[in-house]
Amino acid sequence: VNLKEALSGLGSGPVLAGNDANLGALAEHWRGTATDAQDVVYVLAGHQISVGLLIDGQVRQGRHGAAGEIGILRAARWYEVRDAL
Known about the structure:
The chain is of the alpha+beta class. It is 28% helix and 18% strand.
């Protein structure tokens, strides 16, 4: 499902669809503590760890869209550690 397309007809404002860390970074830049910053690192620590990156006020997702997806990297062995608990 193209979430952005499905929701865009519900109102007159813009629709953003993205992961929680990237949207959190945008929210802090828009109305939060990072309103005066153009470069933002937003760390979301929960079940997994992820990072939202803003450089020059724009979300940077990396070449394959996985920039900041720290907690799901196989090299980090997150799932092995979690499953062992």
